[in-house]
Design goal:
This protein has no helices and twelve strands. It is mostly beta strands. It has one domain.
Length: 173
């Protein structure tokens, strides 16, 4: 019912609008990745990586779920995933979590993709005592576990059942 000011008359109804078009939400695609650092990452026996993405009305959405298995190995360096689309004129930041099986705790990570780039990286606290953000990295093998970020003992990212999971979404061209 239309609101009518007291003492005024209501005019006749306007013409009917045109019918809208049906819209089918795009299906989720599998793929993307794989997770890498300064080389290929071997997630080990039982390790898995799942990536799901779609573009819906100009917005790119990307979900990731990565779990390390037994006997994982890597070259070390900042973690990254190649995504199918670059953000349109912004630096996109998402949300995620890191589970440390070695330490028995979880912490927040922030996936991010710079404008014009198709490379997603991850920000995390440098250590339990330093909440400065830095790029998440596996120790590099040359300098030991102190070269990893987060840098505390027990933040053993490539230990069996450790994981990172998260989501990012942003507009694309």
């Amino acid at each position: 019912m239309a609101w009518v000011k007291k003492g005024s008359l209501q005019g006749p109804p306007g013409p009917a609008g045109t019918a809208g078009k049906d819209y089918a939400v795009p299906a989720w695609q599998r793929g993307g990745g794989p997770l890498r650092d300064d080389g290929a990452i071997n997630l080990g026996t039982g390790g898995k990586q799942n990536y799901f993405w779609r573009v819906d009305r100009g917005i790119f959405e990307y979900w990731f779920d990565i779990t390390w298995g037994r006997g994982a190995s890597s070259r070390g360096g900042s973690l990254r995933i190649t995504v199918p689309y670059a953000p349109n004129g912004i630096e996109a930041v998402g949300v995620g979590s890191y589970w440390s099986q070695g330490g028995g705790f979880a912490m927040v990570i922030n996936p991010f993709v710079r404008a014009g780039s198709k490379e997603m990286r991850f920000l995390v606290h440098k250590s339990g005592g330093d909440d400065t953000q830095a790029e998440m990295r596996i120790w590099d093998g040359r300098y030991g576990t102190g070269s990893g970020i987060p840098a505390n003992p027990g933040y053993t990212l490539d230990q069996e059942l450790s994981s990172i999971k998260g989501h990012i979404r942003y507009p694309i061209a």
